[in-house]
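Researcher: We plan to redesign the surface later, but first we want a full-length starting point. Tokens attached.
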């Protein structure tokens, strides 16, 4: 199925949203809960499946739903349709600070592999499926396990990444990366996991026991602040969660804790 040709604009800086413009009859699919706002005459419906295979039967839809459940995503995708006579807009935003990556899949051999929570929305016709990593190291220690998401199509797709986004193009080189910092990569890139180094480095360098390795020919997108790292730091510094209070710098901060949440 050929993807719908949608126009878009990315708004904001560190808390970005993508505003998608739909012609009459055009559709965009998105993760459940990603919609930020929409104009009048935009209808939406939760469906099993991405709509890339209109003739797919019930069993096929159930299989796709089961695959999405394995990745930890919602069983349903939301389909937004312009039912009006003129152009209408609908906007999507991610649930935490970061940047939105706009990908014209035609420029990347019609396929991109991404981490399971990176997908935000895409033009109707984009196939959103799962990709199994057959390497045991990546499967057991890669953070994402054996399972990544695969986006296939010839239209626009949008990913979300935490912090700053870095795009690298590999020409046979190998990169070693924190496992949580990988957003996505194209065909031709091989993904595996290696030990971070010697025992001293593994336990005291603060980089974890394993690093991801990406090698081959293609494009790689990285993020500077994975959500898991942000959440860990917030919890570690939350006094009520057992962390240490830092940065208050005054008696008033302590008084606020005494009388807060009452």
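Model: Full-length starting sequence:
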């Amino acid at each position: 199925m050929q993807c719908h040709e949608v126009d878009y604009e990315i708004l904001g800086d560190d808390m970005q949203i993508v505003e998608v413009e739909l012609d009459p009859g055009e559709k965009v699919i998105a993760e459940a809960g990603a919609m930020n706002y929409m104009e009048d005459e935009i209808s939406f419906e939760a469906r099993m499946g991405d709509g890339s295979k209109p003739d797919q039967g019930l069993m096929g839809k159930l299989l796709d739903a089961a695959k999405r459940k394995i990745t930890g995503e919602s069983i349903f995708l939301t389909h937004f349709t312009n039912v009006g006579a003129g152009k209408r807009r609908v906007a999507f935003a991610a649930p935490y600070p970061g940047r939105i990556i706009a990908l014209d899949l035609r420029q990347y051999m019609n396929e991109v592999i991404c981490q399971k929570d990176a997908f935000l929305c895409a033009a109707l016709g984009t196939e959103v499926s799962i990709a199994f990593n057959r390497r045991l190291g990546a499967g057991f220690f890669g953070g994402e396990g054996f399972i990544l998401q695969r986006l296939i199509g010839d239209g626009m797709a949008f990913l979300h990444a935490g912090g700053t986004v870095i795009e690298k193009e590999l020409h046979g080189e190998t990169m070693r990366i924190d496992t949580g910092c990988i957003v996505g990569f194209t065909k031709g890139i091989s993904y595996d996991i290696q030990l971070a180094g010697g025992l001293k480095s593994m336990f005291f360098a603060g980089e974890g026991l394993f690093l991801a390795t990406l090698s081959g020919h293609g494009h790689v997108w990285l993020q500077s602040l994975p959500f898991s790292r942000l959440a860990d730091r917030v919890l570690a510094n939350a006094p009520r969660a057992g962390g240490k209070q830092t940065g208050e710098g005054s008696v008033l901060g302590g008084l606020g804790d005494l009388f807060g949440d009452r």
